[in-house]
Write a structure and sequence with these properties.
Layout (H helix, E strand, L loop, with lengths): L9 H5 L4 E4 L15 H18 L5 E4 L4 H12 L6 E3 L2 H15 L6 E2 L2 E3 L7 E3 L4 E2 L2 E2 H4 L7 H12 L1 H9 L5 H14 L9 E5 L7 E10 L2 E5 L5 H24 L8 H4 L5
Helix pairs in contact: 2-3, 4-6
């Protein structure tokens, strides 16, 4: 029943929209990291945010896909004037890759691997958690270091998850598209009041520890928008999460130095919801 159309007119594309998914940035190519796309896609995100404000001020939820998604999502949020609960970015792809890798290693159905989580940045500085996951009902953390999953094998799995996007580009010459498309529509469906989205999403975070940033957290998406809670994990996992946050802060500050974003203390003028 979908009515699929296309246009190069932004007013026509966004006019009256209630739910928006954007993959409108430049694609990542072989040899590039997500962060290599920063300058060009940051400018695209700024214009996208302005277009949302202009053409669909009553939009209810926006999902940003194009990389580096944590930063492009943050820029979109600021320029759109939307509430933080209304803008999310695709981060669940990393968690699904972890689930897939564990299922392949243990030679079981992915349905028997639960609680797979990566947090922080959607990039090569992501924090891959073991403490949240179970494999066939067994805590993953208790399997690591045993003959079933040696420490070296776990390190290899982590690296394959972190390098997943890079590997796809090496194999097929372009970024993945089916999984991001599917997951983003699952996120929108949850925002419309459908089945809850069960993986982390990128969300604007400002609390006692992480400030003025957008990154993957433990989230819930409902028709009320996205909400997050603090991540629980081991001390080592939390250290990785902090390092991922610090990496994102450097990217954010780089965009500020480019003049695409104003200094943090002026964000409230651009978007009153971020005071």
């Amino acid at each position: 029943g979908v009515n699929l159309t296309y246009t190069s007119d932004m007013a026509e594309a966004l006019g009256g929209a209630r739910y928006v998914v954007s993959s409108g940035g430049a694609a990542r190519k072989a040899g590039m990291t997500r962060e290599d796309l920063l300058k060009g896609n940051a400018a695209i995100a700024a214009q996208f945010g302005k277009d949302l404000r202009t053409y669909c001020p009553d939009v209810r939820h926006v999902v940003v896909i194009f990389n580096p998604a944590d930063i492009t999502g943050l820029i979109t949020l600021l320029y759109s004037g939307l509430e933080p609960s209304q803008v999310t970015t695709l981060a669940g792809l990393d968690s699904t890759r972890l689930r897939s890798e564990l299922a392949k290693h243990f030679r079981i159905s992915p349905d028997r691997v639960e609680g797979c989580r990566t947090y922080g940045g959607h990039g090569e500085q992501m924090a891959v958690f073991a403490s949240t996951a179970t494999v066939d009902g067994k805590p993953l953390a208790k399997l690591i270091g045993t003959p079933e999953l040696t420490g070296g094998q776990w390190d290899d799995i982590r690296q394959r998850v972190i390098q997943g996007g890079k590997r796809i580009i090496e194999l097929r010459g372009r970024s993945s598209f089916q999984s991001p498309a599917y997951l983003s529509i699952c996120m929108i469906a949850a925002a419309m009041g459908g089945k809850p989205f069960e993986y982390p999403a990128g969300v604007f975070v400002h609390n006692d520890e992480f400030k003025h940033i957008l990154m993957a957290m433990e989230t819930t998406i409902t028709k009320e928008g996205v909400a997050y809670k603090n991540v629980q994990g081991t001390a080592a996992e939390h250290k990785k999460l902090t390092e991922s946050y610090e990496h994102l802060c450097k990217l954010r500050d780089e965009v500020i130095s480019m003049g695409i974003l104003p200094p943090v203390e002026e964000w409230g003028r651009l978007n009153p919801h971020l005071k």
